[in-house]
Each structure stands twice: as C-alpha cells, then as structure tokens.
C-alpha cells in the first residue's frame, strides 16, 4: 500500500496543482521529494527483478543454499538503503546550478565569415518556487559571462500559472547577446497557460517564436532564426482563459520555411524545436541546425539509453546528424520538480561554437 501511494504521489500532486487545491509552492517542494522516492522505487523494482531471476535460476539448478542466500531480507533492506542514498545524491546533483559547456558544431553551409559564432542555449529551465528567480539569476550570470553572440531558449522555461509565477523567470530579461535572445514553446508552456506565458516572454524581450522566423544580417550574411510550436498542442489546461479550448499553435515548419523564402532566403537557418523526436520531419525544410531540449539528457545513465532515447526517436542528448541537418539536444539547464534526479547526466548551460567546413 505504501509503495503504491509513493508511486502515485507525483501524479496526485500534479492533479492537486491543476485543480488549485494546494499552493503551487508547496506542490513544487513536495514534488521534489516524491520524485526522488519514485526514482528509488524504480531502482528497487529493477533490483527485485534481478534478484528474483537469480533466485529462480538457482532453484532450477537445485542450488538451494544459494537460493536462500539471494532472498535474505538483509540484502533487500541494504539495497533499498543504497537506493535512497543514491537518489538523495541524485537530487542534490539535479538541483545544482549547471556549469557552462562549450561544443563546436560544424555546419556544411556556414559561411567562413560566421565561423566562431557563439550560440548560448538555456533549455528546460522549468522555473518554479524550487528553482526560483535566484536560480535563474545564476543561469543568466553564468551564460552572460560566456559572452554568446546569440541566446536561444528552446522551450519548457516555466511551470505554474503566469500571474503568480512569472517572477521566477524575470532575470531572463538580463540576458545579453548582440544578436538577441530568442525563445520557442515547449510542452510545459502549453500545460501552464500558453497565451498568458507568451505575453510574459515578450514582455521580458525573449522574442517568442511560435511558427515564426526572422532573418538577421550578420557579418554580411543572412542568418535565419526560427521557432515552431510543440506537438503538445491540443491538450487542455486549467490555466487557460477557457479550459475547454486549447491555446497556442501546433508545429508548422512549412510556415517557417515559407517566411524565410519570402524574405529572400538565408545562408544559414537555426530552428528552435523543443522535442527532438520531430527532427526527421523538420530536416527536409532547409534547416541547418535544430536546437532541442525536452529529454533532460535522460536523467540517469542507463535510463537515458533504454527508456528516454527510444521515447524520443533515438535522440537523448548531444549532437546528431539528421539528413543534411544537425540536431543538438541539450541536457537542460534546470529541473522539473516531479523528477529532478540526475545520476551521471549533469544539467548544462550550453554554448555552441559554430564552425564552417575547412576549405
């Protein structure tokens, strides 16, 4: 009974939040605890499967002494203690401010004049009363110190309703980049009241791109920056003005491509598309680089490759070649309190240094 209740706790907390039956700040902190317990229970289930498989094998081989040893309560209790300690450590790692990681990205069409262009990435901040304005200020200070030419925010910047929670991301207005700060929606923007948050993002000068594109003149060349809606479109949210009507827009990469064509084309095109599983459908539309998030890098080594990657068309973190397009999936700069555990997959503030092909 206790195990079932702990396993259901994250879902129950989300339900309480959506129905406004509990203060969002309290829900966020309780989610942090319940998410850690959920991860420990998951490890316990894996242990139980391994233990019982070995027990069954020992019985089949008539190794009675070994079989009795395998199922001793002390081993089960010891493993669960280790799982709880490990997940406590994982929560500590998941709630730490991330370091800045630079990565060179070679793009086939990048003009030599744009070689070395620095793109700062803050993905999946999930700002809440847990990772609040002080946390976000830390992200801003670290990224500004890296001196990016452009900053991109590919979705899931927030959780909670805009009227009471917008202050958690207010420091994003301090981001500094000569070519601007650009953002696009993720699935959590749709869950949290899309229209209200879109107004907040624009008020903070985050240049919100939902099926929109801009063409910039950079060092004598044209650089297109665009963003698309998220596949979560169509879900209803209690935060909407009318909870029976979905807000926001579905992803429309063709509309983005048409806008760039009508603007005279571009030498290079960077797309903000939150969910990497959409990459194969975006690639044929003249995109050179898609910047995505959503996966949080997979959270835990093992879980990243066996669970998160298959759920995202094989993409989990880092660089991929998708046809002629390159895809970068950030491990995320923040945490969703419902599952903040990180083991071997640290959060990250990313700086992509664009490189032209060697002549």
Query: Could you give the distance between the termini?
Result: 66 Å
Main-sheet strand order equals: 5-6-7-8-10-9
Total beta strand runs: 11
**Fraction of helical residues:** 25-40%
Main β-sheet description? 6 strands, mixed
The whole-angstrom Rg is: 22 Å
Mean pLDDT value: 89
Low-confidence stretches: none
Q: What do these coordinates show?
A:
The chain has 359 residues and is an alpha/beta fold. 38% of the residues lie in helices and 16% in strands. Helix 2 packs antiparallel against helix 4. The protein is globular and about 75 Å long. It starts with a helix and ends with a strand. The mean pLDDT is 89.
Topology of this structure?
Elements lengths: L1 H17 L5 H37 L3 H7 L2 H22 L5 E7 L11 E4 L11 H13 L4 E4 L8 H4 L15 E3 L3 H5 L2 H10 L8 E7 L2 E7 L25 H10 L5 E5 L6 H4 L6 E4 L10 H9 L6 E5 L2 E5 L19 E7 L4
Parallel strand pairs: 1-11, 2-3, 3-4, 6-7, 7-8, 8-10
Antiparallel strand pairs: 2-11, 5-6, 9-10
Helix pairs in contact: 1-2, 2-3, 2-4
List keywords for this structure.
359 residues, alpha/beta, 16% strand
Give me a quick take on this structure.
It is built from 11 helices and 11 strands. A hairpin with a 2-residue loop joins strand 5 and strand 6.
